[in-house]
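User: Show me a protein chain along with its predicted structure.
Assistant: Here is one chain, sequence first, then structure tokens.
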Amino acid sequence: MFYAILAKLRTTEEIDVSYTLLKHLHITCAAASYALFLLRGIWKLRDSAMMRQRWVKITPHIVDTVLLAAPSALAWTIGQYPFVDSWLTARSPPCCCISHSVSSR
């Protein structure tokens, strides 16, 4: 209830700008995640010294965290919340479970 009131207080222009920025952030992180995954796979197959670089170990976690956080921020921006909107409730847990199972390997 409280979140719905806050969402209505924001102006349409703020929502449009926020939505567009978050959407592009999410798309950029998705592309970066795929690119880093492919690049790390190539380095792993070639047994490259790059795999031992610190940034190679840390960056994917940061990118994937932002990749998962952006849709939550998008949902909040447009006023859709888990347990209120059934499609979002159904979508949220599987994404988090898949992400956790992939990152824990």
